Amino acid sequence: MTLPRRSLLAAGASLPLALPFIRTAAAQSPVRFCLDWALQGNHGMFALAEDRGAFRREGLAVRMDRGFGSGDTAVKVASGAYDIGYTDVSTMVKFNAENPDKRIVSIYQVLDRTAAALITLKRTGITDPKGVAGKRLGAPEGEGSRMLFPAFARVAGIEASGIRWTSMAANLRDTMLAQGQVDAVTGFLFTTYFNLVGLGTKEEDIVAWPYAENGLDIYGSAVVARADWLEKNPQQAAGFVKASIEGLKMLIAEPDAGMAALKRREPLFDEALEKRRWAMTRDRSILTPAVKANGTGAIDLARAETLIRVNAEAYGVSNPPKAADMFTERFLPPASERRIG
């Protein structure tokens, strides 16, 4: 890990809890869990954890619901509609600054790298990120990858002043790129890439530069919960994280089983496509060098602070939260249990 663990997350000050948590023989605790979007391949880790009893072994009865976007999930967790959520941690910076009494905390960082990316097609002639200077870029107004683009442009050396932005609904972004109405888009790589494939684009024609692999190395989606809920339910939080990690290991070892578990929940789920989406997610955002070295869920405080800083700049937040108030390793099992890949 980049920083010594003792410098990590004095989040203990934010969440004054003691470890280890003692498991009792009490009845299973109900946990309401909200995903970030409709079922996708990486969600198989939670489906397998449920189907194979990992949550039950931790004394949890988990109800998993689809989400409608990371921002929506964060609001639902903060409101108490759900106990735990799976959301992009960038959405939490502005929310926590504006709602300190409903502060959300990342308790298990699943995606070690954000999926935000700059994406184009070969026919545009753009061969590196700097090539988008003066071009037409598209993304929904206010969408996370677009808001973070100025920070990415700085680290990637992109002259952004001449870029012409086109705003559109999220479901039209990839169609407009495929039709040539924009030269490039910003979005989540795993979403846009496979949407383009679904529109008939040849894979060899898709060109992408993930922010995290090109200078803006920040975290992606995580298991999150409200700080006051964590104070009252430390055992449930630790059990959920442990079972989720078990589910991730199952999904890595048996991707077909993970896709089948999701298909049982959603008959229209495309197992073949989502297996490929899962493989890209695994290789680009989960099995990163940092995870291979430190185990899944480990937090580098410097990277956490970078995420907070660039989001605060993007959204005009003058009082950003502290990293120790937004990230914690307190609910993770020992590093020996977090080795994956």
UniProtKB/TrEMBL annotation:
It catalyses: N(6)-(pyridoxal phosphate)-L-lysyl-[4-amino-5-hydroxymethyl-2-methylpyrimidine phosphate synthase] + L-histidyl-[4-amino-5-hydroxymethyl-2-methylpyrimidine phosphate synthase] + 2 Fe(3+) + 4 H2O = L-lysyl-[4-amino-5-hydroxymethyl-2-methylpyrimidine phosphate synthase] + (2S)-2-amino-5-hydroxy-4-oxopentanoyl-[4-amino-5-hydroxymethyl-2-methylpyrimidine phosphate synthase] + 4-amino-2-methyl-5-(phosphooxymethyl)pyrimidine + 3-oxopropanoate + 2 Fe(2+) + 2 H(+). Residues 41-257 form the SsuA/THI5-like domain. GO terms for molecular function: metal ion binding; transferase activity. Pathway: Cofactor biosynthesis; thiamine diphosphate biosynthesis. Keywords: Iron, Metal-binding, Pyridoxal phosphate, Signal, Thiamine biosynthesis, Transferase. Gene3D superfamilies: Periplasmic binding protein-like II. Residues 1-25 form the signal peptide. GO terms for biological process: thiamine biosynthetic process. Responsible for the formation of the pyrimidine heterocycle in the thiamine biosynthesis pathway. Catalyzes the formation of hydroxymethylpyrimidine phosphate (HMP-P) from histidine and pyridoxal phosphate (PLP). The protein uses PLP and the active site histidine to form HMP-P, generating an inactive enzyme. The enzyme can only undergo a single turnover, which suggests it is a suicide enzyme. Belongs to the NMT1/THI5 family. Homodimer. This is Thiamine pyrimidine synthase.
